[in-house]
Amino acid sequence: QVLLDMLADVAQPGETRAEALAVLGQLGHPSLSSLVQAALTDSSPRVRSEARDLLAKQAPADAIPLLAEAIAFGTTTEAQRALETFASLKDPAVDTILAGLLDRLAQGDLPPELHLELVETAQKTEADDVRKRLDRYLDTRKGAGPAAPYLEAMAGGDAARGRRIFFEKVETSCVRCHRVGDTGGEVGPK
């Protein structure tokens, strides 16, 4: 009941409510389907993104158009998350959408905040058409010098997720060597 209350409490931050929905999904709550449907129209982009992700696990065919819509019309956070969700779906419709997005990327018609997620998602697909388009795009970066592998990381990102990874993720232990403000080590650069 606590998780349901957190999800329903619009005074809670969107991230908290999205995490409550994610946990309800992990627990397989009996009302999950109706919770997801309600969350798809929530005022918080994070809650909507989590709902689309859960829908993709429950009913991928229903989720694909909603994910495409989030990429086209959603916030940057929603579009990035939709691309990440596409990586988990094996469907020709997803491959068609990814191919179109890669064409837009090659033409310079895709917001830079989505480049990294698109490239990473395309790298995970097995569709030949998508792989060929990705390879063509990656070939265009060769003249960019040593920074070429990092061009997509120049825009976008999620500061909250980055902060959590830096300070809380034991596997990376960034804070052991690097410093932000008064917190962290002295070995690596600030």
Q: Tags for this entry?
A:
mainly alpha; two-stranded antiparallel ribbon; 2 strands; 63% helix
Mind explaining what this structure looks like?
The chain is an all-alpha fold. It has 11 helices and 2 strands. It has a two-stranded antiparallel sheet with strand order 1-2. α3 packs across α4 and α6 packs parallel to α8 (115-123). It starts with a helix and ends in a 6-residue tail after the last strand. The model has no long low-confidence stretch (mean pLDDT 92).
The H/E string reads HHHHHHHHHHHEE
Low-confidence stretches: none
Shape summary: flat
Strand content: under 5%
The computed structural class is mainly alpha
Largest beta sheet: what is the strand line-up? 1-2
Main beta-sheet strand count, sense and barrel state: 2 strands, antiparallel
Please estimate the helix content: 55-70%
Distance between the termini: 43 Å
Question: How would you state the average pLDDT, rounded?
Answer: 92
**Tally of contiguous helical segments:** 11
C-alpha Rg (nearest Å):
19 Å
Count of strand segments: 2
Indicate the topology.
Layout (H helix, E strand, L loop, with lengths): L1 H7 L5 H14 L4 H8 L5 H14 L1 H14 L2 H11 L5 H15 L8 H9 L4 H13 L18 H10 L5 H4 L1 E2 L2 E2 L6
Antiparallel strand pairs: 1-2
